[in-house]
Task: inverse folding
């Protein structure tokens, strides 16, 4: 346990430029120099603060070069023997390194924040200190949430900076206490952080919207079936306290709905869905700033998303490694252009023209056969340039490559640098948070739930229809609306690190993540047409019930007799 709290800050990695989320240190500074009573501008303290933002989630290919979504039913890793396979095949334990483990990283961030709070008052920039303190408290709350969603209740250490003389045999706080702590922190700092509208220099920093978005997400998770009275029956009383709430309480859904509304109804409406006519779905992820983005992880301009995930059949600066293979299961979840499921009678879906007249988000999420990319038609058919079937060659396993987050390279001949920030919170998620929480709280879906889904489909440019419903059925039951919201969330937030956690908090993972996954086998016929056949391509596995939460690392359990392990591990 000591390595959690006693991470020494004698040498701090501090970025020397304003773009704080950069790889590699530019200079090493001692703690005394950072918190310097003679630094009248607070330069080094500000760099320390900026560097703390590198602790925020950055989801692009972060698990050994793969997306976390490649451990769900939405994608497979194109390569074999990868770290993400250990997760998707339930090959992790408290002893074997967890590719998505966060225990040490989380407490490293918490300690750095506490050092900042303890020492910043000596720096002679009194006017700026309250805002800085609020920012680092937000980053600490984020770190606690990242721990909470993985492990359940974790030790809450307050503002303490521990020394060798301190007793570190600390118990895990209850799940309820952790939720309350994060929510209370959000409420305490929401008026102290930067208020909208944000200036260009403040973009990427904690804002009122980011704080409220975190509160919304925390309360949504807390109200969800996994945590809201859903702990496995075999758990001990002590395990139940740290793994969730002992009993179900519908009021938790109401609190989640109200938290989302607090952000939605901010004065001046600083966040909104861009008008369909002004921006396509893909543009959301290519702008440094737009009305939908609440907080993102700032990165230098690059084309690493295209390089890591693009189709493999190109050369030179158009080379792609093709690491991500979206599944047919994900593709089939997208409705037709009229907003109707492809299996619905009269939907207009054509099995041998499967990508025609579909939800436009599909084309912005995956690259499919015969789509123009880098000034040629993609060849995902057997033996084609992008699926050559040559021994040892990494290629798509499913007949698809990732498209989301990539620039517009339809007619270009090579990739070019552009903004590739990872969005942590955006307004579409908040609408979906509200719709889900409100639906679960009410006995019958209300009009504002329908409106939230229709707003998302309007922005996606699904056909409005004569009844202005965008394919959303009228008079749905609560259960039907629940399914509609889950699917809309899957499509809208694909590859943004939501599906993996959603399936767990809904307690759907034991079913959805224990099945064969599908791809599309494509044969090019002599006349140039294609034959499309859905085929099994892989398997995803979920160890029930233990994989709903990660195991506390054995190294930590062995150092502290007060740390209990999660049920099943």
Result:
């Amino acid at each position: 346990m000591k390595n959690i709290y006693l991470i020494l800050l004698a040498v701090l990695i501090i970025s020397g430029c304003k773009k704080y989320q950069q790889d590699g240190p530019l200079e090493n500074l001692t703690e005394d120099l950072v918190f310097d009573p003679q630094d009248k501008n607070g330069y080094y303290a500000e760099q320390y603060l900026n560097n703390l933002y590198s602790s925020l989630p950055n989801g692009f290919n972060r698990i050994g070069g793969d997306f976390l979504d490649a451990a769900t039913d939405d994608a497979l890793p194109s390569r074999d023997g990868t770290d993400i396979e250990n997760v998707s095949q339930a090959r992790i334990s408290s002893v074997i390194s967890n590719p998505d483990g966060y225990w040490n990283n989380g407490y490293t961030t918490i300690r750095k924040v506490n050092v900042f709070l303890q020492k910043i008052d000596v720096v002679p920039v009194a006017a700026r200190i309250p805002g800085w303190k609020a920012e680092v408290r937000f980053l600490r709350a984020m770190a606690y949430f990242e721990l909470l969603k993985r492990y359940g209740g974790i030790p809450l250490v307050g503002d303490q900076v521990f020394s060798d003389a301190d007793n570190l045999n600390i118990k895990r706080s209850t799940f309820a206490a952790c939720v309350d702590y994060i929510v209370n922190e959000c409420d305490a700092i929401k008026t102290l952080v930067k208020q909208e509208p944000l200036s260009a220099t403040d973009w990427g920093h904690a804002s009122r919207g980011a704080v409220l978005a975190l509160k919304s997400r925390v309360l949504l998770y807390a109200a969800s079936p996994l945590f809201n009275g859903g702990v496995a029956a075999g758990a001990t009383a002590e395990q139940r306290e740290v793994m969730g709430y002992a009993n179900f309480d519908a009021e938790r859904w109401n609190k989640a709905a109200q938290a989302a509304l607090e952000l939605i109804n901010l004065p001046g409406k600083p966040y909104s869905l861009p008008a369909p006519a002004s921006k396509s779905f893909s543009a959301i992820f290519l702008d440094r700033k737009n009305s939908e983005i609440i907080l993102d992880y700032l990165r230098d301009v690059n084309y690493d998303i295209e390089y890591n995930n693009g189709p493999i059949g190109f050369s030179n600066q158009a080379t792609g490694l093709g690491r991500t293979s979206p599944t047919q299961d994900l593709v089939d979840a997208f409705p037709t252009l009229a907003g109707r499921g492809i299996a619905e009678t009269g939907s207009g879906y054509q099995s041998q023209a499967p990508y025609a007249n579909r939800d436009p988000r599909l084309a912005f999420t995956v690259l499919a056969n015969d789509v123009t990319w880098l000034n040629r038609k993609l060849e995902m058919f057997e033996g084609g340039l992008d699926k050559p079937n040559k021994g040892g060659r990494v290629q798509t396993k499913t007949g698809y490559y990732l498209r989301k987050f990539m620039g517009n390279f339809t007619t270009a001949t090579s990739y070019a640098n552009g903004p590739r920030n990872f969005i942590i919170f955006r307004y579409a998620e908040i609408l979906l948070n509200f719709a889900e929480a409100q639906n679960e709280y009410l006995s019958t879906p209300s009009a504002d739930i329908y409106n939230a889904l229709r707003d998302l489909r309007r922005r996606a440019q699904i056909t409005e229809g004569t009844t202005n419903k965008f394919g959303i059925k009228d008079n749905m039951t609560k259960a039907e609306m629940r399914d509609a919201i889950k699917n809309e969330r899957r499509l809208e937030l694909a590859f943004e690190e939501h599906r993996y956690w959603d399936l767990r908090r809904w307690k759907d993972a034991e079913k959805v993540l224990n099945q064969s996954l599908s791809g599309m086998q494509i044969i090019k016929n002599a006349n140039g047409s294609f034959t499309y056949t859905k085929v099994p391509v892989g398997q995803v596995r979920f160890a029930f019930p233990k994989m709903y939460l990660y195991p506390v690392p054995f190294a930590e359990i062995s150092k502290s007799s007060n740390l209990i392990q999660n049920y099943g591990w």
Observations:
- The longest strand covers residues 530-540.
- Confidence is low (pLDDT under 50) at residues 1-27.
- The radius of gyration is 24 Å.
